[in-house]
From TrEMBL:
GO terms for molecular function: ATP binding. Residues 2-242 form the ABC transporter domain. Coiled coil: none annotated. This is Methionine ABC transporter ATP-binding protein. Keywords: Amino-acid transport, ATP-binding, Cell membrane, Membrane, Nucleotide-binding, Translocase, Transport.
């Protein structure tokens, strides 16, 4: 469990304090994938770098399994860095060393394995990330996606409990992004590793995160399970991220509905109800007609979900809405 309690951070520049985080509190459950999303300058990098003390907080506490990391002495801090691996947007590989040597590097620094054990561990790690055939190549000979796989292998070398991902897929094309995210998800499942990632892309959050925090101006403005935040975004910043990702123009949509008759409702289906033929049977039973104004069906991590905006008219619209609710569908009356 990672806990941030009222953490603040200001950078001192030319004798002046530049605030970056203003009282952030978060709880990240062990074994989960936790995403932090925000625009440029929101404080994402600062926040993630506090977890392994690449930056020191100005105030508040950061607890890793109950221990306050800000109180660790130098040797305990080295231990912490081994428990918390990190990968970066631009990979940060050593260009003059081979792939195998890059992955071996943190093992040599830790100094707990002999040469043969290091070779064996590097083999295991390269197999895990699908790069066994590239051991003797140099970073410049690999694609961006392959370089990030090396970054992941290196970050996992000392069997950390936590992996921090600092915009790890931002330099990759969409297809490569998906394959790297899939690898992170496999590792999360296989090793039970906690993953904390920062991103400015809602798609990254949707693909692999269990929970998400939205950061704006150094504050967490919304936090919750990804399904909840995605389907019912509340804060204007969150709404902007979600609507951009979904190509929804909220204002235009409401304009379009001006000429539509009937009661306008939004139904949200999560899990199995997404694929049930509920709409037709409720319409028949309650003698209502519906027209579909907008809709999306998608997957948020492993959970199928859908959202439909309908105009309902006919004999018993209220009974239809009650039936939807009884079937476990979230009903919002928009007009
Ligand atoms: N080393 C530093 N010295 C001074 N100010 C800094 C430093 N690092 C970050 N800042 C400032 O702190 C604020 C938050 O920056 P941070 O890099 O954490 O945001 P971010 O959300 O990660 O943005 P980006 O995606 O652009 O990196 C910004 O105002 C930034 O200018």
């Amino acid at each position: 469990m990672i806990k941030l309690e009222n953490v603040s951070k200001a950078y001192r520049v030319d004798g002046r304090d530049i605030p970056a985080l203003a009282g952030v509190s978060l709880s990240i459950t062990a074994g989960s994938v936790f995403g932090i999303i925000g625009h440029s300058g929101a404080g994402k990098s600062t926040l993630i770098r506090l977890i392994n003390l690449l930056e020191r907080p100005t105030g508040g506490r950061i607890l890793l399994d109950g221990d306050d990391v800000t109180e660790l002495n130098a040797s305990a801090l080295r231990g912490l860095r081994q428990q918390v691996g990190m990968i970066f947007q631009h990979f940060n590989l050593l260009g003059s060393k081979t792939i195998g040597e890059n992955v071996a590097f943190p093992l040599k620094i830790a100094g707990t394995l002999n040469k043969a054990q290091i070779t064996q561990r590097v083999d295991e790690l390269l197999a895990l990330v699908g790069l066994s055939d590239h051991r003797d190549k140099y970073p410049a000979q690999l694609s961006g996606g392959q370089k990030q796989r090396v970054g992941i292998a290196r970050a996992l070398a000392n069997r950390p409990k936590v992996l921090l991902c600092d915009e790890a897929t931002s330099a990759l094309d969409p297809q490569t992004t998906q394959s790297v995210l899939q690898l992170l998800l496999d590792i999360n499942k296989q090793l039970g590793l906690t993953i904390v990632l920062i991103t400015h892309e809602m798609d990254v959050i949707r693909t692999i995160c269990d929970r998400v925090a939205v950061i704006d101006g150094g504050l967490i403005v919304e936090e919750g399970p990804v399904t909840q935040v995605f389907l019912h975004p509340k804060h204007p910043t969150t709404r902007r991220f979600v609507f951009e990702a979904e190509h929804i123009d909220e204002n235009k949509q409401y304009d379009d509905y001006k000429h539509v008759e009937g009661k306008i409702v939004r139904l949200t289906f999560i899990g199995n109800s997404t694929y049930q033929p509920i709409l037709g049977s409720v319409a028949r039973d309650c003698a209502v007609d519906f027209s579909i104004l907008a809709g999306r069906i998608e997957r948020i991590k492993d959970t199928p979900c859908g959202q439909l905006t309908l105009a309902l008219s006919g004999r018993d619209v209220d009974a239809a809405l009650a039936r939807f609710s009884a079937e476990g569908i979230d009903v919002e009356v928009l007009r």
